[in-house]
Amino acid sequence: MASMRDIKRRKVSIQSTQQITKAMKLVSTVRLQRAKARAERSHAYFQCMYTTVCSIISRSGNTDHRYLKKGDSDKKLVITISSNRGLAGGYNGNVVKLITKNDETADWKKEDVKIYAIGNKGREGLARAGYEIVANEADIIEEPLYSDAQMVSADVLARYESGEIGEIYVAYTDFKNTVTHVPTLIKVLPVETETDSEDEKAELSIPMNYEPEEDEALDLIIPKYVTSIIYGALTQALASENGARMQAMDSATSNAEEMIGNLELQYNRARQGSITQELTEIIAGAEAIS
Amino acid sequence: MAENVFDLQIICPDRVFYEGKASMLELNTSEGEVGIYKNHVPMTMILAPGAAVITEENGEKKEAAVHAGFIEVLQDKITVLAEVAEWPDEIDVKRAEEAKIRAERRLAEKNPNTDMARAETALSRAIARIYVAK
After folding, report:
1. Interface contact flag, A212 B31, Cβ < 8 Å
2. Are both B15 and B81 inside the same structural domain?
3. In this structure, are B60 and B6 located in the same domain?
4. ipTM over 0.85
5. What is the least distance, in Å, from the CA of A221 to any CA of chain B?
6. Which residue of A has its CA nearest to B70?
């Protein structure tokens, strides 16, 4: 059995770890509240932009626009949103897995995928897996601003237009609620629209007019659409990150609690053992004298 | 009157700016100023910095400054996706006036290095803000 001193030392060390995890949990809870409120506020824009752009595009017969048809290049650019710091459970790993699991499928060759990394952990994970990292914007994820999203979208669109890449995806973690976060991969460009239901098709029979001309209007709208998707993904990811970290730290704290309980028990047993042993020795000594 | 109203949504990246029924919406688009009633032909327009005037169901008028974005007009619904939208009481007039003077100076200088389009947008933004705020 371990000595009393060893047990005590271990207990103290676990206690200080627990203090850290507890503090981190509190911090991420506060951050989560803020990020969640923000994600909810921007969700309306994100959603509305998506439905509006889908309806605009399905109403316009023209699919020759450069943003609506597939680019010449086979290269895919994936904007990967992860966090800069770890200790968030599977949060970063799941985003990385989202991309690496496509490895086996035929149309997702590793050589064809370029990574636009936002957040250090995702970049590290994907660089280790052998993906090409074309850009790294680690600072954005700390406090994502709309202007950051504008900068990223301008950058990726420039790459798209120059023919360097043919498709743009965003990999991020969707924030369903405080405990559910779903890693999601969405295609941004070329824009894909789904019109399944009959009602929608009927409604779509009214053609859309553009002012200015259609091409010009789409030229202006699509970058805004891309920006809004990136911004939405950033706010969602930030909320998910803090949610994931809060959960991870919560379970770490309760694990520490459990370990401390066990060690306490062991320590008490060891203490009782040493007392008993001492007593036996004293009694034996006294007997020997008399 | 009630049958002439449409649903109006003005949405910004960080909030739902306005949601409600309106009988008319006036806006500044890239092609000039427009006023839209119900049953307008479906149309997509690009916003230019300017004042948006919302005439509500009860005839009350509300003004706001909207800067960039686009609008989708359907027969009974108008969605404005604005990158920036502000009510008059949210506008800092002093700052807008300073921005206006700055932009005017930059345009007057005719320095080949300045981004003219950007200075012009900045100017029209400042003008829109000042117009709405007063």
Report:
1. yes
2. yes
3. yes
4. no
5. 7
6. A221
B64 lies in the same domain as B39: yes
Two tokens, residue A215: 């091409």
Asked if A118 and A137 touch (Cβ cutoff 8 Å), the reply is: yes
pLDDT (tens digit per residue) in B106-130: 777 777 776 777 777 777 888 888 7
Please list every residue in chain B whose beta carbon sits closer than 8 Å to the beta carbon of residue A52: 72, 79, 81
Set of chain A residues whose Cβ sits within 8 Å of the Cβ of B9? 48
Quick: pLDDT tens for B94-110. 888 888 888 888 777 77
Q: What is the pTM of this model?
A: 0.79
Domain with B101 in it: 92-133
In order of their start, the domains of chain A are: 48-247 (3.40.1380.10)
Residue A42, Cα to own-chain centre: how many angstroms? 17
Render pLDDT for A61-99 as a digit per residue (tens, 0 to 9).
Answer: 555 667 776 666 777 888 888 888 878 778 888 888 887
Pair B37, B97 in one domain = no
Question: Nearest-CA distance from A236 to chain B in Å?
Answer: 12
Maximum C-alpha span of chain B: 54
Clarify whether residues B108 and B80 are in a common domain.
no
Amino acid at site B43? M
Which domain CATH number covers B30?
A: 2.60.15.10
- The count of domains in chain B is 2
DSSP per-residue letters across B99-119: HHHHHHHHHHHT-TTS-HHHH
Distance CA A49, CA B72 (A): 10
Same domain, B45 and B97: no
Rounded Cα distance, A226 and A228, in Å: 5
- How many contacts, defined by CB atoms under 8 Å, are there between A and B? 69
* Angstroms from A174 CA to nearest CA on chain B: 17
